[in-house]
Amino acid sequence: MTSFLASLIASVLGAMLLIATPAGASERRQGGKLLLTDGVSTVDGSAGGGLATWAVISGAETKDGIGGSVHASYVALPNFDLTSFGGAIGFSNRVELSYAHQAFDTRAAGAALGLGRGFTFGQHIVGAKLRLVGDAVYDQDRLLPQIAIGVQYKIATKGAVIRAVGGQAQRGMDFYAAATKLVLSKSVLLGATVRFTKANQFGLLGFGGDREDRYRPQFEGSIGRLLTRNLVIGAEYRTKPNNLGFAREQNAWDGFAAWSFNRHATLTAAYTDLGDIATVRGQRGALVSLQGRF
Amino acid sequence: MILLLALAAAAQTIPPGEDPVAPYAQHDTNAGATPFRGSAMLRAFHGRVGIDRMTDDFVNRLVADNRIADIFKGQDIVRLRRLLKEQFCYILAGGCTYTGRTMRDSHKNLGVQQADMGALVEDLQAAMRKEGVAFPAQNRFLAKLAPMRRDTVQR
Predict the structure, then answer these.
(1) How far apart are CA A92 and CA A29, in angstroms?
(2) Which of A206, A214, A235, B3 is 20 to 30 Å apart from B137, CA to CA?
(3) C-alpha distances in Å from residue A230, one per residue of A35, A66, A257, A263, A264
């Protein structure tokens, strides 16, 4: 896996170098994307909605520049809270590299689960995304969506607990293909992503389990409606594997509003339902996320 | 063909205030988009008067926009104003004829980049907002214009 990751990073860097030195008289430029057309930051760090990854590349750059984003997200649940910090760099609206750190605080539930009050799961997520074809915004005369493929390498921090609850690995790789289309004539945004993953609770509880330890396709769907040029509302759905015997895992959904109150800043608020987490039922709560982008 | 061009040249009298241009074949398809059906979009833009008012404001914003103003320096702004009004009026089913060149020909050697198109869209959105065009109608119109980026951005 490590050598695979190394070769992947090498090939991505190679692609970046090719893109970074374009032939012809193209002048390097900052910015150029319309507001919100690079999405916001998912809790996994890549560009998308809050939960679902989109085919768009992070940052305001066009094919002539480099852009990026940083985010801080907080999900308040009845018994837990999740924070995510991270950033992403977009190269020439073609390649995106992202990083996010998630911390999942079990608060009082940690004591009930025998982990100790305030026991905090965590994971590092390093992502790479490549836009293959299409332009979600400008190709309004074609049905073809913007399509991207990507990987996310996730390193969970609490290996001992993960093994104790039946998790098979502390590190895991997700592979996904995403399609995103803005239907401008209807002011509607559509997104669909297939993700091959073994992650338990996004990877916080490790990868694979005693119940199941195989890559299975999972689905992420998004629908959004543009209300003004800087305000979009929508909903997302994300299926998750159910690998661990000790606790069932349900699919997640949210309803969100993203407001780009400045060219360089977007505030997202959502109501989200993450289902049962580690035997604690009904984890529905609020997500707030602040993103800065250039 | 030569005869056609000669006829076209003869027909193309230079409107007042504009510079002469090399003759070209005129056709509505040069506008780069097909018109809307029905009159809902024309009403959303407040008729031909509204289109002209919005386009004047749009051009004023373009030439004052520091990000892209250089592109318009040395260009025939009088002609640009007239042709944008014709093009928008044609697409919005206002009953106009478009007499300009194709998007590819009219943007040749302008050196427009994708980021310039983004800036232009923002200026157009601001002009439509000022005219009071409803947001869904703005997007329907932009959906017609967006694919033109393939012809207007040539580097």
Answers:
(1) 10
(2) A235
(3) 6, 22, 10, 9, 11
Cα–Cα nearest to B118, from B73, B75, B67, B84: B67
Whether B118 sits inside 8 A of A32 (CB atoms) is: yes
Contacts with A24 from chain B: Cβ below 8 Å: 155
Buried-exposed string A253-292: b where 16+ CB fall within 10 A, e elsewhere: bbebebbbeeeeebebebebbbbebbebeebebebebebe
ipTM of the complex: 0.91
Contact yes or no for A230/A255 (Cβ under 8 A): no
Residues 6+ apart with CB under 8 A from A91: A16, A19, A20, A57, A61, A66, A97
Chain A's closest residue to B120, CA to CA, is: A32
- Write out pLDDT tens, residues A36-72: 999 999 999 999 998 999 999 999 999 999 999 999 9
> Which helix (H) or strand (E) segment is B138 a member of?
helix B135-145
CA distances from A2 to A9, A174, A215 (A): 10, 14, 18
**Contact (CB<8Å) B115/A29:** yes
What was the pLDDT predicted at B5?
A: 61
Dihedral (CA of A106, A111, A115, A117) sign: positive
Q: Indicate if the pLDDT at residue A233 is higher than 80.
A: yes
CA–CA distance, A17 with A13 (Å, rounded to integer): 6
Confidence band for A24, pLDDT divided at 50, 70 and 90: very low
Beta bridge partners of A147: A133, A179
Q: Among candidates A255, A261, A251, A252, which has minimal Cα distance to A287?
A: A255
Whether B155 and A227 lie within 8 Å, measured CB to CB: no
Q: Determine the distance in angstroms separating the CA of B155 from the nearest CA of chain A, rounded to an integer.
A: 6
Q: Would you call B140 and A29 a contact, using CB atoms and an 8 Å cutoff?
A: no
Write down the pTM of the prediction: 0.92
Pairs of CB atoms within 8 A across A/B: 65
B136 and chain A: CB distance < 8 Å anywhere?
Answer: yes
As given in the structure block, the two tokens for residue B79 are 């002609």
Q: What is the pLDDT of residues B61-75, one digit of tens each?
A: 999 999 999 999 999
Range with the lowest mean pLDDT among A84-88, B9-13, B107-111, B121-125?
B9-13
